[in-house]
Amino acid sequence: MTQYDATAHISEEILNPEVRAPRSIVLAMSFTYLAGFVFNIVLCFVMGDMAGILSSPAAQPVAQILYNVLRKFGGIIFTICAFFILKLVTFTAI
């Protein structure tokens, strides 16, 4: 949600902002939708036993799927990287 906010702020600096700013917002939201959809499809293909994931002590289904697929070290590294990427993206909203 920070992408269209940043586009709105930078629209003062671009040529033809009434056309380019909305186009940029739509492209950013479309890419985000597509990337999220692909990520969810991949999670569905690799998740395995749904009952085991939902009853895991981690209480975080995505982290548990990553742990099951990538094993302990890979799951921890990927979860930490995802956390930092989310933090870097949301820092622009502060």
Short description:
This protein is mainly alpha-helical. The chain has helices spanning 2-10, 17-46, 50-54, 61-90.
Structure report:
With 94 residues, the protein is mostly helical. Helices cover 79% and strands 0% of the residues. It has four helices and no strands. The chain has helices at residues 2-10, 17-46, 50-54, 61-90. The two termini are 12 Å apart. The model has no long low-confidence stretch (mean pLDDT 84).
Sheet of most strands? none
Mean pLDDT, as a whole number?
84
- Number of extended strands: 0
Instruction: Characterize the overall form.
Output: elongated
The number of distinct helices, counting runs of at least 4 residues, comes to 4
Oligomer: single chain
- Category from helices, strands and their pairing: mainly alpha
Strand percentage lies at: under 5%
How do the helices and strands follow one another from N- to C-terminus? Answer: HHHH
State the distance separating the first and last CA atoms.
12 Å
Q: What ranges have pLDDT less than 50 throughout 5 or more consecutive residues?
A: none
Helix percent band = over 70%
Radius of gyration, rounded? 18 Å
